[in-house]
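Form 12-C: Joint structure prediction
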Amino acid sequence: MLSIGKLGQAAGVKVPTIRYYEQIGLLRPATRSEGNQRLYAQSTLSRLAFIRHARDLGFPLEAIRDLLALQDDPNQPCLAADAIARAQLQAVNRRIAQLEALRCELERMVQHCAHGKVADCRVIEVLGNHDLCLHPDHDNGAGDDHHHH
Amino acid sequence: MLSIGKLGQAAGVKVPTIRYYEQIGLLRPATRSEGNQRLYAQSTLSRLAFIRHARDLGFPLEAIRDLLALQDDPNQPCLAADAIARAQLQAVNRRIAQLEALRCELERMVQHCAHGKVADCRVIEVLGNHDLCLHPDHDNGAGDDHHHH
DNA sequence: CTTGAACCTATAGCTACTAGAGACATTAGA
DNA sequence: TCTAATGTCTCTAGTAGCTATAGGTTCAAG
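Section 2 - Result
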């Protein structure tokens, strides 16, 4: 049996994050010691590593919830897992395309900056006048990313 | 003088977002009509369009706050604006690199899926066993992106 | 047995908005 | 001019995925 701290260390997940996962039902409530502290079996470690890995790959928690349910039911066909992974791949591809457009615009901006006064600054100018953009319909897109660390 | 709705339409920003920007001090409090409704001058439209454009390019609001301050003081040297834009460019580049590693891993995952049972699913397997990854140190990285839309 | 680290709960904060409730203002049409 | 529809007002709470803090308890080493 592992304490929450050992579990977190082994899985590369912070302690409050583990408690958070329990709170939102991604991990089942842990058994407790006599003194009310959480105790985990090895099986929880693999489950948590699974979550951690999926998070690293950018899967949202709701998708992970579905993947875990599939994992718990190994006789199901794996179409659903496949679909979730494909959706994530598409989201990543979309995000990359958007960011590449942004990179292009930002590069133009900083390359043309003459390092003079703000009044003549290309950065400020471009931000103020969208028409100066190469692709006037660029857009940072739907925020399908997550935050961590 | 523009109502908040017209202003939002003209700048491509939703009405509650404009009120939010006022609340956090990114826009100065608007003058009010007799009936307490916000009224905006044309100058606010360009300011809001500036914010919108910078947001589309992924600048965080705090960076935009600094850029606006620079814009209001056109005799300053533009080093600071340049630095903000370069930082944003670097953040975008970092993010692209991370996402490309993710894309690679996700593609491998879905390509090797045999579409059988979950028990044999490559997607589930890879998520559960990090060692199957091409670059075992891949990571979705610091969440420096924002959400909108 | 004591000390310090790790643990507990509960709450608030982070980014950048978005959604909703319930009340007031404005405006276009009859 | 009246009315109905739309727009606006404030305030609060919710979104994702944690992170941080406060104030208290338990555990393990010495």
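Section 3 - Comments
Helices of chain B lie at 4-11, 15-23, 42-56, 61-71, 79-111, 122-128. Chain B is about 55% helix and 5% strand.
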